[in-house]
């Protein structure tokens, strides 16, 4: 079975949605006819082209979202819930098709792509259940002179900007709660991985999402288009997942128009292993935390700190596991580590590894760019990595595990907090008291205690410090980001 047959095996040809912007429920070219090439990172070959949206296209999308806003806002919560539930069901039905598409345009191993589709679909199921549970508040003013009524209303049109590393999950994590709250949206997916966003747009329409409620634009000029949309007074929310640098720029732009922002930004997650940890469990967790999506994740274990008593055994065990991973095209069934997204990404990883080695790090496996077609970097383990190495302070975003030894609990916490980021952290210890104590001491929005995977639609996702503002997912947290409280003072 060739790749095209695999993509089409359930009768849903996602490729036919790769040549049109999705605005007001219809597919259309960009106003100037320009296109963006989509590249397979496994080979560097162009596999499709999508429209390159203009300022006029962005204005049309805002107009479509505004036209649909009143009807969607007034749609009964139960009806919205049923539509979201249908989105979940269709994603599950088409999961293999979507996974193959993600692997093709993103490069991630098919097993990771399948996991992403399952995770992405869950945001629709979770928010379908939460959509009918949005309640207000009622109480008596302390003075006794009036009643306090608090209602929660949709915030308005939302601009959603998502990255290339999880093209399905990062979109549904924003779209599902926004729709549950009663908002209309404009999604701008990354230009490297637009096909998944367009395939999902078709699925949303089939599930019953009305025209104009979800609009999708791809562009090579994200700055000007975003600025133009935020300048429209009908746009009241910006939700962004991406780098801290871009996030800072967007926050400045949003501030000009006093627009509510949710920001899920960069990460530099520490993975702390104490001497009393279950070694096999810690190694299992490290492989998950480090190698999910080949390390191209904001929650990836970026700095691995291992206490001296277990350091050598952990380093040996991790290097053996990493060296054994099968590297190949994401769409190959046996691939365990796919390519990086671009050559630029590979070059950055190589720079960080060379810097660490120059500062005294020892290469236990991998450590150099592979001589092959595509954008590949091998699974790599470094030991004796200096806390001063560049990779201790920059996101690696690749399959490199740098190990640094520590002696005391206080030293581990100090190492973990020596970063401007605070998204995620991981701790392995059999001592629950120590685990909770260290979790309290580490500055991060999310902690995995004896777990290498923490993301869950039912839990609030987000960071502290330079890792962002607001939360996505969780009971009430995700939907709350897309609502505003209205206070009504009532005298009977």
TrEMBL record:
Keywords: Oxidoreductase
CDD domains per record: ALDH_F5_SSADH_GabD
Species the sequence originates in: Rhizobium loti
Protein name per the record: NAD-dependent succinate-semialdehyde dehydrogenase
Family: Belongs to the aldehyde dehydrogenase family.
InterPro entries: Ald_DH/histidinol_DH, Ald_DH_C, Ald_DH_CS_GLU, Ald_DH_N, Aldehyde_DH_dom, Aldehyde_DH_Superfamily
Domain of life: Bacteria
PANTHER family recorded: SUCCINATE-SEMIALDEHYDE DEHYDROGENASE, MITOCHONDRIAL
GO molecular function: succinate-semialdehyde dehydrogenase (NAD+) activity
SUPFAM superfamilies associated with the record: ALDH-like
GO terms under biological process: gamma-aminobutyric acid catabolic process
PROSITE patterns documented for this protein: ALDEHYDE_DEHYDR_GLU (PS00687)
Pfam families assigned: Aldedh (PF00171)
């Amino acid at each position: 079975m060739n790749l095209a047959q695999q993509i089409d095996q359930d009768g849903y040809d996602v490729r036919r949605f790769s040549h049109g912007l999705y605005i007001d429920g219809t597919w259309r070219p960009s106003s100037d006819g320009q296109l963006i090439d989509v590249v397979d990172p496994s080979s560097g070959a162009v596999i499709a082209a999508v429209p390159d949206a203009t300022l006029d296209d962005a204005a049309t999308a805002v107009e479509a979202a505004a036209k649909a806003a009143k009807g969607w806002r007034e749609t009964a919560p139960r009806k919205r819930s049923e539509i979201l539930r249908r989105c979940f069901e269709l994603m599950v039905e088409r999961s293999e098709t979507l996974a193959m598409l993600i692997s093709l345009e993103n490069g991630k191993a098919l097993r990771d792509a399948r996991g992403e589709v399952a995770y992405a679909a869950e945001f629709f199921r979770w928010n379908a259940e939460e959509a009918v549970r949005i309640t207000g508040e009622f109480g008596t003013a302390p003075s006794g002179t009036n009643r306090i009524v608090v209602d929660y209303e949709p915030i308005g049109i939302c601009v959603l900007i998502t990255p290339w590393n999880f093209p399905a999950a990062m979109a549904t994590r924003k779209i599902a709660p926004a729709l549950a709250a009663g908002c209309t949206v404009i999604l701008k997916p990354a230009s490297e991985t637009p096909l998944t966003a367009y395939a999902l747009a078709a699925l949303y329409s089939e599930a019953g999402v009305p025209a104009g409620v979800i609009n999708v634009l791809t562009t090579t000029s994200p700055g000007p288009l975003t600025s133009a949309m935020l300048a429209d007074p009908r746009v009241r929310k910006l939700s962004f997942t991406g780098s801290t640098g871009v996030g800072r720029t967007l926050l400045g732009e949003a501030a000009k128009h006093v627009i509510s922002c949710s920001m899920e930004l960069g990460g530099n997650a520490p993975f702390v292993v104490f001497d009393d940890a279950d070694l096999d469990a810690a190694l299992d967790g490290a492989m998950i935390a480090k190698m999910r999506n080949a390390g191209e994740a904001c929650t990836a274990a970026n700095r691995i700190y291992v206490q001296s008593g277990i350091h050598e055994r952990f380093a040996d065990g991790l290097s053996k596991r990493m060296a054994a991973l099968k590297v190949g095209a994401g769409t190959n069934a046996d691939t365990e580590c796919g390519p990086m997204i671009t050559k630029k990404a590979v070059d950055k990883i190589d720079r960080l590894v060379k810097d660490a080695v120059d500062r005294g790090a020892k290469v236990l496996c991998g450590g150099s760019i592979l001589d092959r077609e595509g954008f590949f970097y091998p699974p790599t383990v470094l030991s004796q990595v200096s806390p001063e190495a560049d990779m201790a302070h920059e996101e690696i975003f690749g399959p490199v595990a740098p190990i640094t030894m520590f002696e005391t609990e206080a030293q581990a916490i100090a190492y973990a907090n020596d970063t401007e980021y605070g998204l995620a952290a991981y701790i392995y210890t059999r001592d629950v008291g120590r685990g909770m104590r260290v979790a309290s001491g580490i500055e991060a929005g999310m902690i995995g205690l004896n777990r290498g995977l923490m993301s869950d639609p039912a839990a609030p996702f987000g960071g502290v410090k330079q890792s962002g503002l607001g939360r996505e997912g969780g009971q009430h947290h995700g939907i709350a980001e897309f609502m505003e409280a209205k206070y009504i003072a009532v005298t009977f």
